[in-house]
Amino acid sequence: MNQILRLTALMVLVLMAPLFYSEVGRSFPEEKTELKLTLRSKKEIKGDKKDWATELKEEKWIASKTAVVVCDMGDKHWSNNASVRVGEMAPTVNLFVKKAREKGATIIHCPSDTLEFYKDTPQRLLAKNAPVVTTQIPLMRWCKLDPTAEEKLPIDDTDGGDDSIPKCKNYRAWTRQIDAIEIYPQDAITDSAEAFYLMKQKGITQVLVLGVHTNMCVLGRPFSIRQMVQQGMKVALVRDLTDTMYNPEKAPFVSHFTGTDLVVEHIEKFWCPTISSNQILGGKEFRFKEDKRPRVLFVAAEDAYKSRNWIPEFALARLGKEYQSLFAFSSEARFGSLPGLNMLDSADLLVLSLRRRGVPEEEMKMLKEYISKGKPLLAIRTATHGFAPNMKLPAGYAEWKEFDKDVLGCNYQGHEVANSLTQVMPVLDQFKNINFDKVKNEKLASHLYKVNPLAKDAKVLLEGKSVPGGKVEPVVWMREKPEGRVGCFTLGHFDEMKHEEIQQVLKSTIDLVIGKSNLK
Length: 520
Fold this sequence. Notes:
This protein is α/β, with parallel strands linked by helices and 520 residues long. 28% of the residues lie in helices and 23% in strands.
């Protein structure tokens, strides 16, 4: 009888082993197992909340001091589309938490309002029995947006954010966490301040948050971003393993997925940095199958024309329904890194707006590889001399003085006198449909660039005439080469970019260069 019991116990241990041992055969990962993360955030330039630079920071988080919070990934949502997206995302979430668990992170499942389903389970008791911690800032069931502490959310979610057709009735649809996300014996389950109490008990100081929804629970719950930041925890959002309750019929009237991007960007500005899931999992970032937007990477690093200000506004107004806009912004400097340039790997179009900059040799290599592959490129104004710094560069930095000739097919020789103005004249039929009367009356503040002669394969789309003087130069052109399409747009003054007509020109140029439309 005793031998039978011993054999039974041994079989139980063997069967349970996968739950306690990682793939490398450790029951508990080493105390110093690290999560190597690239934290992305937005940093104000000169205290201007309309001017933000991209900031990337490499960090190594000790896994045993890190919690992964799975926020409200319920088995069902009252919004049909939200349910579909949670179901699609859940398998990747499961892989992410599994990998983090194997490295030694604590996994805290937080399916709000469903704790009765988990009553008396070891995972529920683990959180429930954590000693209560007194906090200077009370942990609330829901932390509302405080307009004195952060900017207004960039989307209108006052209708609840349901983008289903037909619309769904709001009710408590969830009963538990979605089954696709496994709950291991050493995990915890809660939906309250217990999550923080458990973190303190285990000496956790860092939190990765994923789940739904960014504009609601991911920001507001007691285990999530706002309140964890307020308690002094180091927090990061897993930006590709999340979703937003946003209806494109509400402001700012963009794609549902662009709505999520806007809230993620808001979080990077006002609350905490973000990471992507492939930093833990490898491979590519998660992307919803319905998200078919081409990706446009805007690299802006110039001060004179305020492109860091007008590009996001243009992208929201003109591209938000059709494209995903990615931003790699930096302040103007004669040499320096371009944070976010690593996003080139997933970009369908690169848009450059920078001036006389030397970049690290590795980044120049990335740019040249992108161009050599024939992937679409659009240069805006000062990018004609974007890599021609008028100084000797330090070791490790590279320039590309012939970028205008080699890539854009032009010969940049400066601009007309500073007090001159520019009138535009459409050449391509697509641009002839744009009403330029207002622009003609006001003229344009971008002094006409001297770029002739153009390469033989360059097709002029828009010309400009200097006033006074009457000199005519190409303003917008495109090269269709075997390696891919390259365009140049030499307007770009922040005042003229307020013109609807000039925005139309830039949008049409982007469509042409990326291949969404063809020359007529």
